[in-house]
Prior knowledge:
The chain is α/β, with parallel strands linked by helices. It has 2 domains: 18-73 and 348-431, no CATH class; 86-344, no CATH class. Helices cover 47% and strands 7% of the residues. The chain has 19 helices and 7 strands. The strands form 2 sheets. It has a 5-stranded parallel sheet with strand order 4-5-6-3-7. A two-stranded antiparallel ribbon has the order 1-2. Strand 1 and strand 2 form a beta hairpin. Helix 8 (176-188) crosses helix 10, helix 9 runs antiparallel to helix 10 and helix 17 packs across helix 18 (422-431).
Amino acid sequence: MRDNETRFDQHEDGNPSQEVYNLRLNYLKSIGLTFDPFEAGVAELEMNHVVPISPVRDGETLSLNHPTFLAYLTTPPVPKSLNEPLLIALRRPEPTFIFSPPGGGKTSSRLALEARCRREPDGTLVVRFTPSRDIPPQSNHDIWTVTGNLLARDLAIDLFIQIMEQFPTEDKWPSEKQLILLAEQIKQGGRNLEKLVRWLLQDSQDGIPSTNLFGLAEHWIRVNRFAIQQVNPSAKRKVWLEKALVVAQTLSIPTADGKTAWENGLIAAKAWGFNRVLLLIDEIDTSRRNPIDLMALVTPFLRAQPIFSQQDVHLKVFLPEDLRKPIEQYLSHMQLSPSPLLLSLTWDMNALRRLLHNRFRAAHSRRDGLNDLAADDFPQALDDLLLEMASGSPRRLLNLIHELITVHLELNPSNPLSPIYYDEFKMAISRLGLTDIDPLGSSPSGSFYRRNKHQQKQIAHHYQRLSSSRHT
């Protein structure tokens, strides 16, 4: 750290200065990258935070919010218990629980599954739900009373977007019933969904700039969803969407109980051609880290699984590895049919190397690593060191590369193309608190996810008793 105690890449308010930002982008451009593929190590942030270094490529002007995160996604290796690709297994209509430590690919796998279902429609509606901080971690609460209206709101948002993406615009006209049900769902989706509809109508009237890669879909971010393909304006769609909005504006704010609101959403989905639902539950550990609290958030969904199964709704739950044993214990008493699939995501060196290569390809670069940028004082190849220090974590790999570039530019602002020295690498891992990582694969000693076996048994025992009492 410099004497003034302000990071080279930050103002005192924590934001990067324009000078530093330009230096970084120019450096990346000089080593053959058109994007910064290491800027965000968290999938959800990366989804909406990818900016081209230059808005012009091959003579075509690109939108400055060009999200290439779909190109970034590298699914983890196929778990040993599977004999088919991960996304095919996750797409099956059966309850599935996916486990990994933080940064182990849960959210990126969920995003890849969601994108696959939306780009290759087969009558499946994908609903993304993230339990908020407002939901009490109480395993005995009724899911419909506490969570039902939140589930119904997210179903309404995802249904609207996937109708916009998949419903034919020129050769088919929605029925009166479909439009009324759509209007009800627009109202159920809340104020932000109504605002989204108005934006779509405005753009349908004014036209879409040629620099926009996704057409109307660029507005999905307004309801915290991502664009996966272009949705062009349509005169016919504009007419029936206006009708649905007019009806929605005549409706009162929904007052139905959570279970009824959810069921109404399923009725609307079937009317629009969606015969089944994949309910993707993710990011439960972003605001809480206590395993018992996390398990308490999940338990109501487990108890509701028989109801979901009758509705042709299939849970896809992405969870921290610590919860695998408690989940197994709980499910063993439920005797569900079909039996849930439990998968643990793991990343070996080869998988991390593929991820690194994909990052460079996403940035339109021909390079496949950073070895050529390293000085001669490294004890082994720079790429190998990065992969070892990542210790099986994609997020840690991306954060480490990002920090290494930051350190290098901090120490060499006037000569950024000088080699990266081993001391710079050691400074980067020190800043990230990775100095106590064993390159052979263990996690940092202070990590929440390295709990001792006694603690794991306590958690499992707690939920074994709880599940026994629920199902006897």
